[in-house]
């Protein structure tokens, strides 16, 4: 029997996230230890499904300005000006999502610890 994924309420994702840019071969943990500001962004997914603080930083990696976001059964989509999806982050585990960009670089979203 096929299992179906549940669509989470947007409130589950609202809050502070840490975005990390790395190559496919770099572990995100190793990138964080390198302490390069250009490799990490503090990102806020707001309750009204807009991208708050950190949108400019993430946008520099995505080649488009992130404006909004919405949950999907298997991840989180970030949308641009026209509301169309510009990047999809697939679920890797609780509070951990990743996407491989056209350039081959990997962006990891991790729920910020409170």
UniProtKB/TrEMBL annotation:
Signal peptide: none annotated. Residues 13-111 form the Alkaline proteinase inhibitor/ Outer membrane lipoprotein Omp19 domain. Gene3D superfamilies: 2.40.128.10. One of its GO terms (molecular function) is endopeptidase inhibitor activity. Belongs to the protease inhibitor I38 family. The keyword Signal applies. Keywords: Metalloenzyme inhibitor, Metalloprotease inhibitor, Protease inhibitor, Signal. This is Alkaline proteinase inhibitor. It comes from the Bacteria.
């Amino acid at each position: 029997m096929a299992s179906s994924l549940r669509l989470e309420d947007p409130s589950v994702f609202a809050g502070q996230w840490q975005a990390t840019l790395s190559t496919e071969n770099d572990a995100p943990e190793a990138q964080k230890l390198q302490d390069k500001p250009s490799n990490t962004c503090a990102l806020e997914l707001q309750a009204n499904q807009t991208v708050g603080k950190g949108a400019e930083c993430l946008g520099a990696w995505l080649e488009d300005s992130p404006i909004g976001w919405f949950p999907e059964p298997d991840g989180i989509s970030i949308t641009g000006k026209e509301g169309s999806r510009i990047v999809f982050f697939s679920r890797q585990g609780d509070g951990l999502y990743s996407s491989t960009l056209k350039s081959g670089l990997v962006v990891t979203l991790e729920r910020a610890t409170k």
